[in-house]
Amino acid sequence: MKKFVLLTIGFTQPTTEIMKSWNHWFESIKNRIVDQNGLVNGKEVTKNGITNLKMDNDAITGYLVINAKNIEEALTIAQSCPMITSTKVYEVMSHESKP
Questions:
Q1: What does the pLDDT look like over 29-51, one tens digit per residue?
Q2: What pTM did the predictor assign?
Q3: Could you give the number of structural domains in the chain?
Q4: 68 falls within a domain
């Protein structure tokens, strides 16, 4: 199995219906989740300073690390996400230990 990071994009004020959708999705993939958390109070650091990030349709609102056989399987899992705007999928690079 490989590891993939799913970044959930987009924020809208959660309703009971939205939360039920998310909870159902998390339950459906619980055997694949390695780590997960929601994100709030974001800041962006650049050479010009620090900016507060808005909780809007462009916000990164959470991440999941999942196990999947390949990118195709990870994408299928992401497609079933009750996303607000989108879900970005990245493969986690594996680091082989050297003696």
A1: 999 999 999 999 999 999 999 99
A2: 0.89
A3: 1
A4: yes
